[in-house]
Amino acid sequence: MIVELRTYTCTPGCLPAVHDRFINDVLPIWHELGIESIGFFTPADEASESLTYLLRWHSKAEQEEKWQRFLVDPRWVARRPLTELNGPLVQTVVSRFLQPTTYSMMRA
């Protein structure tokens, strides 16, 4: 098992729209494609326009295959531009892959 840690730095004022896009557009597609989200987080100690979330994968190969399927999914291809009529919602995306330690509660 690996965990993907993704952090989005949102365009100023767009974090609520990013939340809406995940709830209404992204998560239903991910569920159907078998993309497993572990949790979504915003900073508790600062005013920040960022969203961090975790995805669980069996392997990097699974991540690559399912992420590509998501990117070309007709629903996502049709919906994404409609959520960005006033410009991009996200300025930067940082993705890291993590492995649980032998003493982690999230072992494979």
From TrEMBL:
<feature type="domain" description="NIPSNAP">
    <location>
        <begin position="3"/>
        <end position="104"/>
    </location>
</feature>
<dbReference type="Pfam" id="PF07978">
    <property type="entry name" value="NIPSNAP"/>
</dbReference>
<protein>
    <recommendedName>
        <fullName>NIPSNAP domain-containing protein</fullName>
    </recommendedName>
</protein>
<dbReference type="InterPro" id="IPR012577">
    <property type="entry name" value="NIPSNAP"/>
</dbReference>
<dbReference type="InterPro" id="IPR011008">
    <property type="entry name" value="Dimeric_a/b-barrel"/>
</dbReference>
